[in-house]
Amino acid sequence: MKMKLVVVQFFIISLLLSSSLFTLSNADSSPCNGKCNARCSKAGRQDRCLKYCNICCEKCDDHCVPSGTYGNKDECPSSCNGKCNARCSKAGRQDRCLKYCNICCEKCDDHCVPSGTYGNKDECPCYRDMKNSKGQPKCP
C-alpha cells in the first residue's frame, strides 16, 4: 500500500513540475514580442515583419515599437536621426541623403556618422566601407 502511495505522489509531483516548466518555457520573455505582434498583425508577410521588428526593437535602449500597424516611425527616436540631420543639412537632395545616411548608420554597430556635411569618412570605417550594387560608396 505504501509503495502505491509513493508512486502516485511521485507521478503527481512530476506532472505538476512538467506543466509549470512548460508554461515557463512558453512565456513571452522579450518586451518586444507583444509590441511587434501588434505592429505586424496586418502585415502581408507577418513572419518577415516580426523578424525585423524584433531586431529593431532589441537594438533600441527603451525597446520602442511605433504604435499602429504602419508608419509612425517618428515615435521612436533613433540615435542616427540627429546625426544624419546634421550630415545632410546642406545636401542638394536632402530626402535621399537622409534615407541612405540612416540606412548606413543603423547597419553600423556603433551607429557612427562622420562629422560635418561632407568627407571625414575615416572617422567611421563601417559607414565608409559600405558599397551599393554598383560598387560605389553607399553612404553620403
UniProtKB/TrEMBL annotation:
Secretion signal, residue range per the UniProt entry: 1-27
Signal listed as a keyword: yes
UniProt xrefs under InterPro entries: GASA
Keywords linked to the UniProt accession: Gibberellin signaling pathway, Signal
Keyword Signal tagged: yes
One Pfam family here: GASA
Family membership: Belongs to the GASA family.
Name this polypeptide is given: Uncharacterized protein
Taxonomic source organism: Brassica napus
Origin organism lineage: Eukaryota, Viridiplantae, Streptophyta, Embryophyta, Tracheophyta
